[in-house]
Amino acid sequence: KNQVEQSPQSLIILEGKNCTLQCNYTVSPFSNLRWYKQDTGRGPVSLTIMTFSENTKSNGRYTATLDADTKQSSLHITASQLSDSASYICVVSPLNYGGSQGNLIFGKGTKLSVKP
Amino acid sequence: KAGVTQTPRYLIKTRGQQVTLSCSPISGHRSVSWYQQTPGQGLQFLFEYFSETQRNKGNFPGRFSGRQFSNSRSEMNVSTLELGDSALYLCASRQIGGTNEKLFFGSGTQLSVL
Known about the structure:
The structure holds two protein chains of two kinds.
Chain A: E1 4-7, E2 10-14, E3 19-25, E4 30-38, E5 45-51, E6 56-59, E7 62-67, E8 72-77, E9 86-94, E10 105-106, E11 110-115
Parallel strand pairs in A: 2-11
Antiparallel strand pairs in A: 1-3, 3-8, 4-5, 4-9, 6-7, 7-8, 9-10, 9-11
Chain B: E1 5-7, E2 10-13, E3 19-24, E4 31-38, E5 42-50, E6 53-57, E7 64-68, E8 74-78, E9 87-94, E10 104-105, E11 109-113
Parallel strand pairs in B: 2-11
Antiparallel strand pairs in B: 1-3, 3-8, 4-5, 4-9, 5-6, 7-8, 9-10, 9-11
């Protein structure tokens, strides 16, 4: 069964520190893997999209990595800011995705709290 | 360009009532999909519309329905509301073309069923 598991479920860090969020998936083969940031009470916003052939993708202080052999991805946040407090969602598209949104596999997210 | 607009932002209903939520996609985006998000379950796919046709439907009861208009705006309807329908309902739009297209989400409608 295609699944996406994220860890940890929640994380508290101090402002200025770095952190890494994990995403393990069983989707195979897959087309692409996406990370989204969702502020409380808002819709998710895309951070990165990586195809199966990409190893890393950066977006400012956010860097996503992908290891297709171990089926793991991580999202690294550098020099965290209070505004990084949000949920981070990992989404995997199976290769037989066919362009339909119904085939996307969503993780349940990691809730990050950045404290001053 | 304006983003995805969802109305209303908040809604309180009682069990048994019905509700209609609205979504206006980004201009030029013809695909609109709907999701239900609850704290324990994450995002659950409801359905996707493209050019006024439903392309795919998630595993939800028939009380959940939707439609899309010729201007790509979409509505979803939930009839005979149950307490478990309390959730954040998100709409997303995208341009069709390739499998790496970005999904753009609205801010959602927070539905509370009492």
